[in-house]
Every structure is written in C-alpha cells, then in structure tokens.
Amino acid sequence: MSSHEHHSHASRSTNRARLLIAIGIVTAVLVVEAAGAVLSGSLALLADAGHMLSDLLGLIIALVASIIALRPASDRHTFGFQRAEVLAALANGVILLVVAAFVGSEGISRLISPETDHVQGVPMLVIASIGLVANVAALLVLRGGDRQSFNMRGAYLEVFGDTLGSIAVIVAGIVIITTGLVAADAIASLAIAVMIVPRAFVLLRDVVGVLIQSAPKETDVQQIRRHIIETPGVLEVHDVHVWAITSGEPVFSAHVVVEPKIFADGATGELLDRLSGCLTAHFDVEHSTFQLEPAEHAGHEHEQHR
Asked: What is the CATH number of the domain that holds 29?
C-alpha cells in the first residue's frame, strides 16, 4: 500500500468515527427538539427538528457511503467504490433542498394565517439553546473531515445549517418572550429555509463537477502541461484529461510525444517514472496514465485528440 493510499484509509477511518459521534449527538437533539416543538407549538423549532432529521439521514448515508468506499477495486469496478461518497453528497444536497422547500412553505402559511399560532417562547428558547450546544459539539467533531471529502463536507454543511437554525430559533424565542410577537417564529423558520438553500446548491455544484468529470478546481491543467513539456525527452503533449474519482482523488491521462532516442535507448520506463513522479510531487496526482508516442504516430491521430 502506498503512503497516499495509507493516508486515504486512515482519513476514512477517522471520518467514520466522526460520523458515528455526530450521529449520536444529532439523534439525541432531534428527539428533544421534536418533543419541544410539540410542547411549545413552535414552527421554527419543528423546522429545526425537521432539518435535524434530514441531517441524521444525511449522516447515516455518509457513514454507509464511507464504508462502501473502502471496498477494493474489481474487474467490473476498476476504480473501486469511492464514487459512493459523491453519490451520498448528492443525496444530502437533495435532502437539504426538500427540507428547505417544506420549511419555507410552512413558514409562509404561518405568516398568512397568524391567528393559528400558539407559540410558547420559554420552552422554545430553552430547547433551542440545548440544540445549539449540541450542534456546536457535532461541528467540532466533524471539523477537518470537511476538507478531505465531499461526503464529509455534506455532513458538515448540514450540521452547520442546524447550528444557524438553532440561533434563529433562539432569537425568535427571545422576541416572543419580550414582545409577544408570535410571527417571529414563522420568520425564523423562513430564515432557516433561506440559510439551507445556498449551502445545498454549493454542495450540488461541486458534486455535479465530479460526476461530469470536470477538472478539479484546485488543479491547473495548463501548469501540468508545462511541467510535462519541460521534461527532458518530451516534444509535445496532447489528449490531456484531468478529473476526480471523488474529492481528493484526482486522475490524469495524456498522450506524450517523445524524442526518437527515448525509444532507441530503451528509456521509456525512466521517462514514465519522471512524469508520474512529477505529477505526484507537484500536483498530488497519484493515478496517472501516459501514452508515449513517436512523432510519426502522433501525426496520424485524429484532430479531436489534440
């Protein structure tokens, strides 16, 4: 196992532990908030509980995906199952949008028909405060993993949204206690919906980028080309492709036109070592494939490969 693969395995094991702890925290708070929503009559608290339910489902999906991603490659799944993490992040993004739509529609309904509201500010405030503390704890547990994996980023964003939701409910509870303005509850629920949507779209945008095999944002394809061209023995590079299996796992392939003496001297293996070593050292690309070509072969290739 390479050092990169060992680091990847260790990161995923750590991420699974983070997810298990976060699932425990979110489950406990979900039960408290759901009971509190019934007790206080707060839509904002119910919205936050619904958001936490979506988070719990998202965290469970993320946990299952992280386990599936560890399955080894096979003849049918030659890259293994790492894309499971991307699909989990896609599911999390869709769940976030569904929750935002439900909370938004209910919040508008409460604003249109305020006479149906019977909201108790004190239990609403107390339970939302408990939720805030628990969400901050879950964020601290998940912190770090969000920079390594789309899957973990989706889980982190969901809990982060819960944290903002708890703050919105706390503010609404204070307003209701001090002013009696029950509309603050519906306004808080709408604020929660508004906060959810941008995070969901950012997550979905990144996931779609991987699924349509766009070059990773942090990868400078032109700089990679320059590094390859500057390698001794290389004349030209074309048919360059850079994509990602999942976050943090970029893949590279290219056709490289080389000087005739590389083939004549039997130095193709040495050149391949230099090229793959360059991509690993400078661009953190562990999976690279190069097709070495003499100039006369490159001239026969279809124009679309250039």
From this structure: 1.20.1510.10
